[in-house]
Amino acid sequence: MEREGLLGLAPSSSRGAGEVLIHQGDQDRTDVYLLRSLPGADVTACVKVVVYLESGAEVLLGIRVGGDVVGELAALRRTPRSAMVTTCSPMLVHVIRAQVFVDFLDRHPAVWNAVARMVADRLEWANRRRIDFAQHSVPVRVAKVLLEIAERYGVERADGRRDLGVELTHAEIASMIGAGKDAVFKAMRGLKDAGLIDSVKRRRIVLDQYGLSVYQA
Question: A single GO molecular function, which one (predicted)?
């Protein structure tokens, strides 16, 4: 009932791949975006959350999929947008006004709790990346982040391997784990030579999930 109530706060609209939902630094719009996959689609709704640094570098902070909410921090804190959010697949989006979203949370404590858990989960993801940076080599960090993404967002294939569920460049992987692009390229090549990953369909990665979990342990 609460999910239907949340969906009913705003109508859905179709968005194509490559559309910017949120612009970093925007102070005028604090809407919340609820992501939904298109009915019958063979790919899930997916967006990338990216921060652009003053140096011009891009840092991929995370990936969000159908059922996720994005833009909630600016709505709750009434602060400028801290990152850019761009679609990477066709999807449906419910654009909910900030005050409407907050009022709904106040009336539904269970949804408040769910949002709090979601924010905590994203913080834990960021903390794990920092710990991995301090403890592990680049190949292990690459394996860990690919495995986590596959477990969260991936799709099981008929051959028992797992489609990552999102296209990632070497530069994007490098930004997530705090490594150089060349080091990530070398690590990816080593994992591919070991039969743990493969690249198909425009950089999409297919994983041997069990083998990769043993490798990164």
Answer: DNA binding
Tokens 């596959």 belong to 150
Cα gap 160→207, rounded to integer Å: 9
Last residue of a domain, one of 131, 160, 188: 131
- 115 and 143 co-located in one domain: no
DSSP string of 60-89, one letter each residue: EEEEEETT-EESHHHHHHT----SEEEESS
End-to-end, the C-alpha distance of the chain in Å comes to: 41
Domain finish residue from 131, 154, 182? 131
175 and 126 within one domain: no
Pair (32, 80) in one structural domain? yes
On whether both 115 and 181 belong to a single domain, the answer is no
* pTM of the entire predicted model: 0.85
* Per-residue confidence in pLDDT tens, the chain, 217 aa: 477 888 899 999 999 999 999 999 998 888 999 999 999 877 788 999 999 998 888 899 999 989 899 999 999 998 999 999 999 989 999 999 999 999 999 999 999 999 999 999 999 988 988 898 889 999 999 999 999 888 888 888 888 888 887 888 899 999 999 999 999 999 999 999 999 998 876 567 878 888 888 888 7
